[in-house]
Amino acid sequence: MDAITVLAELKGNVATMGYGLAAIGPAIGVGIVVGKTIEGVARQPELAVDCRS
Questions:
Q1: What span, in angstroms and rounded, lies between the C-alpha atoms of 6 and 28?
Q2: What are 26-51's pLDDT values in tens digits?
Q3: Three-state SS at 7
Protein backbone atom coordinates (compact mmCIF):
# COMPACT_ATOMS: atom_id res chain seq x y z
CA MET A 1 0.00 0.00 0.00
CA ASP A 2 1.53 3.30 -1.03
CA ALA A 3 1.01 6.76 0.43
CA ILE A 4 -1.35 7.90 -2.34
CA THR A 5 -3.73 5.03 -1.70
CA VAL A 6 -3.76 5.73 2.03
CA LEU A 7 -4.44 9.45 1.45
CA ALA A 8 -7.25 8.67 -1.01
CA GLU A 9 -8.92 6.33 1.49
CA LEU A 10 -8.53 8.88 4.28
CA LYS A 11 -9.99 11.64 2.10
CA GLY A 12 -13.00 9.45 1.29
CA ASN A 13 -13.61 8.68 4.95
CA VAL A 14 -13.44 12.35 5.94
CA ALA A 15 -15.87 13.31 3.16
CA THR A 16 -18.34 10.67 4.34
CA MET A 17 -18.17 11.98 7.89
CA GLY A 18 -18.65 15.52 6.58
CA TYR A 19 -21.81 14.54 4.71
CA GLY A 20 -23.18 12.94 7.85
CA LEU A 21 -22.46 16.01 9.95
CA ALA A 22 -24.00 18.25 7.29
CA ALA A 23 -27.26 16.29 7.56
CA ILE A 24 -27.54 16.92 11.29
CA GLY A 25 -28.19 20.69 10.97
CA PRO A 26 -31.30 20.47 8.79
CA ALA A 27 -32.61 17.59 10.89
CA ILE A 28 -32.39 19.72 14.03
CA GLY A 29 -34.11 22.60 12.22
CA VAL A 30 -36.99 20.41 11.06
CA GLY A 31 -37.35 19.01 14.56
CA ILE A 32 -37.61 22.51 16.02
CA VAL A 33 -40.24 23.53 13.43
CA VAL A 34 -42.35 20.42 14.09
CA GLY A 35 -42.04 20.89 17.83
CA LYS A 36 -43.17 24.50 17.65
CA THR A 37 -46.11 23.50 15.43
CA ILE A 38 -47.22 20.92 17.99
CA GLU A 39 -46.82 23.49 20.75
CA GLY A 40 -48.90 26.02 18.81
CA VAL A 41 -51.69 23.50 18.18
CA ALA A 42 -51.70 22.56 21.86
CA ARG A 43 -52.11 26.21 22.84
CA GLN A 44 -54.78 27.07 20.23
CA PRO A 45 -56.36 23.98 18.65
CA GLU A 46 -58.58 26.04 16.33
CA LEU A 47 -55.46 27.21 14.44
CA ALA A 48 -54.30 23.68 13.64
CA VAL A 49 -55.07 24.07 9.92
CA ASP A 50 -53.05 27.29 9.69
CA CYS A 51 -50.05 25.81 11.50
CA ARG A 52 -49.88 22.76 9.23
CA SER A 53 -49.88 24.63 5.94
A1: 34
A2: 999 999 999 998 898 899 888 777 76
A3: helix
